[in-house]
Amino acid sequence: MNPTIELLKSHRSIRKFTEQKIPRELLVELIRAGQGAATSSHVQAYSVIHVTKPENREKLAELAGGQGYVAGASDFLVFCADMKRPTEAAERTGATVVRGMTEQLLVASVDVALMAQNVAIAAESEGLGICYIGGIRNNPAAVSDLLRLPQHVYPVFGMCLGYPAHQPDIKPRLPVEAILKEDYYRDDRELVEAYDETMHAYYQARKGGNKDSNWSRNLTPLFDSKLRAHMRDFLIERGFEMK
């Protein structure tokens, strides 16, 4: 396979970083690479907050669930879905804009995710490590206040970037046969059961080797409780009414 495909297949989350700092020029280039991602109707419905103040990094680490690498990485970015900029731009042309549509929330969320993944790939191509921080959504109102986010902007996730101080094993992914379905959706239970065995072996073999789990069991917290039940009310308060 070509180097790009090999790079994409080699992703792993990095949570330990050296003290080496990312040059500002490289960070800006990573953001430019992010801007090259596909964007719905060229809306570019995203903003990225580069958090540099140590006290703000510490606070975000706390708000994200005590994830110390948020404060310890060379750089920390918060990727935000931003419908403020495009709706105001359309409004200045004289258009009567409608805010709070569900499709606007989807467009902005997809746009920022695509943009962030471009940043991640560009960073890894330069020998950097990254770790997405979904814990930003644990306390989205406090994060928004800290970053002074206006209405119609919400924090989707964070990203730690830095030079890796470790190279963890790559987690096995689901078999492609479970993901790629020809013509129609087909049940993949047998493939998932086999994958659970693969993941159990991975957890037993990796450094530490004391996690007795698999893929299906790891999903339990996502579905046996109301995970981040605050998000709907928070989004409505931010102007994403989902009309």
UniProtKB/TrEMBL annotation:
Magnesium keyword on record: no
Superkingdom of origin: Bacteria
Keywords: Flavoprotein, FMN, NADP, Oxidoreductase
UniProt-listed SUPFAM superfamilies: FMN-dependent nitroreductase-like
Domain called Nitroreductase: residue spans: 9-163
Family: Belongs to the flavin oxidoreductase frp family.
Name of the protein: Oxygen-insensitive NADPH nitroreductase
Organism: Halomonas salifodinae
Gene that encodes it: nfsA
